[in-house]
Amino acid sequence: VSATTAEKPRKRYPGEAKGFVEEMRFVAMKLHTKEQAKEGEKEVKQPEERPVQRWEPSVDGYLKFLVDSKLVYDTLEGIIDKAPFPSCGVTVVLLSAKSSFFFRFPASVVRSNDKNKVISLMWSASDAEFIDTGLERSEKLAKDLQWFKEQGYTIPEPSSPGVTYAEYLKELSEKDPQAFICHFYNIYFAHSAGGRMIGKKVAEKILDKKELEFYKWDGDLSQLLQNVRDKLNKVAESWTREEKNHCLEETEKSFKYSGDILRLILS
Ligand code: HEM
Questions:
Q1: Is the shortest distance between the CB of 183 and ligand 1 below 6 Å?
Q2: Tens digit of pLDDT for each residue in 18-33?
């Protein structure tokens, strides 16, 4: 048997041929229920997993959802804004025993030999790419909350689901770039898909069809999403298979944290 025929074909992951975003999407779609999306496979267990058409939302609950969502977007967008801008960085190749990484960061931090620093530098390299994608939601949500205030509603303080998720995202941004990217992808892409549908249905039921800024994007949304997909695919190209799997495995947590916030609409 020649060396070539004896070689086992490497395991292919669903979506792999199209790039890593397709792998993330594949895992995410399975975590939907059939009611939520036709590719869904999960059983309905939580109230927010029931068909949106049958939800009985309240304005107070929806306001809690918007406030907690804003805290999550503020946190996410704050983390990304702090990342060094790619053009003021230098490209460096780090060689470790197992793999090498290409990334850019300001020369001042190149001197660090500390292992933990290296992890956060790798992350800085990728998050800098995600500034001003056009998907940001923080300012849009600020406008919506202002509108509710003008209508006479009292804006609540953030509640436990939002506070817990925001803390978790901060923690990941410091120590786990692959897991952070998983949340980044799911938060923005979920909002562009199911999130929009939820916004429309809820507005029909309780807001006299008022279209909130949260559901409006400046520019062509499908193009903005495609630009981010391309960047995510590029970032993941430098990851090992283990790092990619670690990112995919975080999807369940992303659904859990976002589900807890979505459920506020029904509270
Ligand atoms: C896509 C519904 C919650 C992540 C979608 C799609 C629908 C949907 C209809 C589009 C499927 C298609 O392309 O044909 C819903 C509903 C939800 C919900 C009704 C809750 C009531 C979530 C949650 C997450 C999530 C909690 C993760 C945090 C995603 C992702 C996509 C998606 C990543 C793929 C978007 C893309 O293809 O660009 N969802 N979803 N969804 N959803 Fe959800």
A1: no
A2: 999 999 999 999 999 9
